[in-house]
Amino acid sequence: MALREFSIPQSQSYKLDKLAFLVTFCSLHVPLRMRFFEQKPLDQKIVMRCGIMNGISIGLLDLSLGFNSIDFYQ
Fold first, then answer.
1. N or C terminus of the chain with fewer C-beta within 10 Å?
2. Runs of H (alpha helix) within the chain
3. Three-state SS for 24?
């Protein structure tokens, strides 16, 4: 007996993404309003450097995926 592959239709996957973002937003917004979080100043240069390095590393990882076979990741 063959097992059927589980897949979610694309329109429903978008709904699940929206629901996940809404739940995340609410779970962070409510404690912020209740003053559970303390805001601290950030150094903008460090934040920009981390963002640029993160973007470069993701780009290099995606580039390396193009040279590897799919069998390695399955």
1. N
2. 10-33, 44-67
3. helix
